[in-house]
Write a structure and sequence with these properties.
single chain, about 375 residues, alpha/beta, seven-stranded mixed sheet, 13 helices, about 25% helix, about 20% strand, globular
């Protein structure tokens, strides 16, 4: 089968690889109909992780079940399904408690597994024609048959739940104001989710014109940090107080204001300055324990200079960590079906799988309006 294979920094290729097969009674094989490129994939693509050549990328996957193991009870061939990027067993302590992003079974020695991602277990990615899904009764979310909402449903694999997770971590409530740092796909999903949760005013901070325009289209207030201190811009519009809540949708590859120099802690520190005293921060943006491309020796070890004193002084609360997709994907699916949510506004390009190398290059360079790419094998 065809699959997107990592070659080395800034290089992927579509190659012939072995088609997956049933290895456990609760496996299914899914024929992929849509698979998306994620900003997290770019960390590997850019050589900013320990990823070795040969990894098949792709943790945002949906399609049609082609084959079921004999132990599968709730699914059958022909079912249309979308899979959380988290690979989870469903029965370990963390899964039972709802922390499926931190499964203790699927990646021995580490809490959490994912498809096609370095250090996240042996699970091959789905930027391919077929995908093996383990613990399928638990990991597959059934969708209505047909092709309706394809662009919306694919976002249930990761970015829509992850954006919602950022708001959950920050405990966004109706009537509150929210500052979202980062106008990429997850940031836009966080802003959209804040509105779904009833936020009265949402700010989106970025400097990419297409992203800020998209934020404005959905009713958020765009803040261009290239035009001035985003903290002051937001305080000017909140009576000098700041917002009630904040979401970091950027992570460790943040860029310092007015430069192209990376400053890994800048978004965290900006949020500490932006959110009012006793507010809360949600941090779904990715931070890593080791970054080979970090701008200094501390950041290469995942150690960042964060204003903890100011955080404490303001009585701010902070929630962190990757999304437990299964906490959210069912009701978000149902909101899509009922017409209450249409997250596909963030999708900029739909392309055949064989155009993946070009799509990765353009998405990485933020050119030609590339914000969210869906590939169709």
């Amino acid at each position: 089968m065809k699959a997107v294979v990592y070659q080395g920094p800034f290089s992927v290729a579509v190659e012939d690889v072995e088609k997956p097969s049933i290895q456990h009674p609760n496996d299914v094989i899914v024929r992929i109909t849509s698979t998306a490129i994620c900003g997290s994939d770019l960390h590997m693509y850019e050589g900013r992780t320990a990823a070795e050549p040969g990894i098949v990328f792709g943790h945002e996957n949906m399609g049609i079940i082609e084959d079921c193991g004999p132990g599968v009870t709730s699914l059958e061939e022909g079912d249309r399904v979308v899979m959380p990027f988290n690979v989870a067993c469903g029965f370990c302590t963390n899964c039972v408690d709802g922390y499926t992003g931190y499964c203790l079974t699927v990646n021995p020695g580490f809490a959490g597994g994912a498809y096609g991602y370095v250090a996240m277990g042996p699970w091959t990615g789905g930027q391919a024609e077929y995908l093996r899904v383990p613990y399928a009764d638990f990991n597959c979310l059934k969708l209505p048959p047909g092709e309706e909402h394809e662009r919306d449903f694919i976002l249930l694999a990761d970015i829509f739940p992850t954006g919602y997770h950022g708001c959950e971590l920050a405990q966004v409530r109706p009537g509150e104001s929210v500052a979202v740092y980062g106008g990429g796909p997850v940031g836009l999903m966080a802003a959209y989710s804040a509105m779904l949760r009833g936020a009265k005013k949402v700010f989106v901070v970025d400097r990419v014109a297409e992203r800020l325009a998209k934020a404005e289209e959905i009713g958020a207030v765009p803040i261009n940090f290239a035009e001035g201190d985003p903290i002051e811009q937001i305080k000017d519009q909140t009576g000098g107080v700041g917002t009630d809540k904040g979401v970091d949708a950027v992570g460790y590859q943040a860029t310092a204001q007015g430069t192209d120099r990376e400053e890994p802690a800048t978004v965290l520190n900006s949020l500490v300055g932006t959110v009012r005293a006793t507010g809360a921060l949600g941090v779904p943006g990715l931070y890593v324990p080791a970054d080979p491309g970090g701008p200094d020796e501390d950041s290469k070890k995942g150690m960042l200079l964060v204003s903890v004193g100011r955080l404490f002084e303001k009585g701010l609360r902070m929630g962190t960590g990757q999304c437990n997709v299964k906490r959210y994907n069912r009701f978000l699916r149902d909101m899509i079906i009922e017409g209450r949510a249409e997250p596909s506004f963030v999708v900029s390009h739909e392309l055949p799988l064989d155009q993946a190398p070009s799509a990765y290059e353009k998405f990485d360079q933020r050119v030609e309006g590339y914000t969210k790419v869906v590939l169709h094998p």
